[in-house]
Amino acid sequence: MNMTLTSPAFADGERMPDKYTRLGENLMPPLRWGGAPEEAKSFALIVEDPDAPSGTFRHCGVFNIPKDWNQLGQSADTAPGGGPRFSENDFGNARYDGPQPPKGHGLHHYRFRLAALDVPNLKVTDSAGVEAMWKEARSHILSQTSLTGTFDVH
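The structure assignment produced for this chain is given below.
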């Protein structure tokens, strides 16, 4: 079975609602997944915009997501009580920061990539950043899936 990643907030390839962007409420959208390999020991997630003017921009990095989880609720990055860890994004925040493309820059694609990992914990610091976290995760990936949302500002 292949891994799947979905959101009740938007379908793959659809426009993300404003409330999940920095121009709205900047809420992390809810995500759900299935089909992970049985040997998975944790999950990691990144959110990237490959259409950013300066190159790929990383909006979020989540790691050490427990193996028995199959979703992240809306605003999981601000939920109390611990849980998974968030890497520092390219805005400089250890949380989700949604789309904020330059006005008139055209349609941007926001890739949510989820990986099932063969280790229970990645040994990276929050301040290492999303790129460093994903570099560490890549050597432990058993399976991965993605979901793409779009957004533009006219």
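Interim note for the steering committee: The two ends are 40 Å apart (CA to CA). The mean pLDDT is 93.
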